[in-house]
């Protein structure tokens, strides 16, 4: 099971995320949106959305650079494994608290406002609850991560994450002996990647996909004429 979840499942999840997102953007571009409901409980939406997005963006880039930048780079600037794990746990914990407060506000709004709940799809509710659970798992792991910082477990997770993207065989062995709470956090995170193309999360990629499609396909272009150059109406 360890080999499946941490050696095979990452490739299943990432493949479905990439292929599924491309297919959805190509076949159903009009579903590529976040389906705003800002006219209802606007203040709760704005506060919750800001807290959630700020916290999640900090966590995402923290995970991205923390796991995928080689440890030698951190060593070269004087950040050793113990200090890096403490920094990740404390900074990530603060960002996690901000994000989960925002996520709970958004979940409360979506589940308790009848008009929003009735127009929410299965995935609208499911992905929001999955994100709340993922943030909760991350926060639960923070005290343990701080208490065991001297063991340098962060190195094992860095080796595992970098091994996934460099296609190393036997990569799952790096985290075979790590605590269950970390493993649950990873598996749920991979599952979020797996269901990504079927949810409103695809709008995250809009900032990247739209310019590419505009440059590579003719359908992205619009013909614009100045008022002076516009053709006259036959009646004129």
UniProtKB/TrEMBL annotation:
Gene3D superfamilies: Transmembrane di-heme cytochromes, Chain C (1.20.950.20). InterPro entries: Heme-iron_electron_transfer, NarG-like_domain, NarG-like_sf, Nitrate_red_gam. It is a multi-pass membrane protein. It is an enzyme of class 1 (oxidoreductase). GO terms for biological process: anaerobic electron transport chain; nitrate assimilation. Heme b binds at residues 53, 63, 185, 203. GO terms for cellular component: nitrate reductase complex; plasma membrane. The chain crosses the membrane at residues 6-25, 45-66, 86-107, 127-147, 186-216. It holds the Pfam family Nitrate_red_gam. Its EC number is 1.7.5.1. Keywords: Cell membrane, Electron transport, Heme, Iron, Membrane, Metal-binding, Nitrate assimilation, Oxidoreductase, Transmembrane, Transmembrane helix, Transport. Its main location: membrane. It is found in: Cell membrane. It catalyses: nitrate + a quinol = a quinone + nitrite + H2O. Residues 2-227 form the NarG-like domain. GO terms for molecular function: electron transfer activity; heme binding; metal ion binding; nitrate reductase (quinone) activity. It comes from the Bacteria. Dimer of heterotrimers each composed of an alpha, a beta and a gamma chain. Alpha and beta are catalytic chains; gamma chains are involved in binding the enzyme complex to the cytoplasmic membrane. This is nitrate reductase (quinone). The lineage of its organism: Bacteria, Pseudomonadati, Pseudomonadota, Alphaproteobacteria, Rhodobacterales. The gene is narI.
């Amino acid at each position: 099971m360890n080999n499946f979840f941490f050696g095979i499942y990452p490739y299943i999840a990432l493949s479905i995320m990439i292929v599924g997102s491309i297919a959805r953007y190509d076949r159903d571009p009009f579903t590529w949106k976040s389906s705003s409901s800002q006219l209802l409980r606007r203040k709760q939406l704005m506060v919750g959305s800001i807290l959630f997005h700020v916290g999640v963006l900090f966590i995402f880039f923290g995970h991205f650079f923390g796991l995928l930048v080689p440890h030698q780079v951190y060593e070269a600037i004087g950040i050793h494994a113990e200090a890096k794990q403490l920094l990740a746990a404390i900074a990530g914990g603060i960002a996690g608290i901000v994000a989960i407060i925002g996520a709970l506000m958004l979940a409360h709004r979506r589940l308790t406002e009848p008009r929003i709940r009735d127009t929410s799809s299965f995935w609208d509710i499911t992905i929001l609850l999955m994100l709340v659970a993922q943030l909760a798992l991350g926060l639960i792991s923070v005290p343990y991560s701080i208490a065991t910082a001297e063991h340098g477990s962060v190195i094992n997770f860095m080796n595992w994450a970098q091994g996934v993207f460099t296609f190393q065989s036997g990569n799952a062995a790096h985290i075979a002996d790590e605590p269950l709470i970390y493993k649950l956090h990873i598996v749920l995170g991979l599952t979020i990647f797996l269901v990504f193309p079927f949810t409103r999360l695809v709008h995250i990629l809009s900032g990247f996909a739209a310019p590419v499609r505009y440059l590579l396909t003719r359908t992205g272009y619009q013909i614009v004429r100045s008022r002076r150059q516009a053709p006259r109406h036959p009646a004129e």
